[in-house]
Amino acid sequence: xxxxxxxxxxxxxxxxxxxxxxxxxLVDIGSTYLVxxxxxxxxxxxAPLETREATTVDGKSHSVPYVGPLKxxxxxxxxFVGAIVMGNEVLLGAVPIEDMDLVVxxxxxxxxVNPESPNIPRGSVK
Length: 126
Known about the structure:
Order of helices and strands: EEEHEEEEHEE
Number of strands: 9
Structural class: mainly beta
Strand content: over 45%
Low-confidence stretches: none
Largest sheet: 7 strands, mixed
């Protein structure tokens, strides 16, 4: 299986005068959070809310800024989340993927809207 990438829009919903950032992101269901590089946080004028601990694939723990809120849009879906700031690319983790009811198609190397609920996201609350 190869890497899955998708195009998403990132907005600062508090500062609506700022233009959104249209970015290509790595889709990673093994990651919990939305991850953004520092330059994206700067462009969207996102201030740190707190510090979180993030464990990277090499097993190392890092104290990283947690910023927000952000509005994430993919196709006809959107969600509001926080993000950790680290690395040099945008990474779409499990929380926003689940919130927008998206599915990863590994065979096609594609992120898509859940075909079982094509018009609005759905999720479990029980």
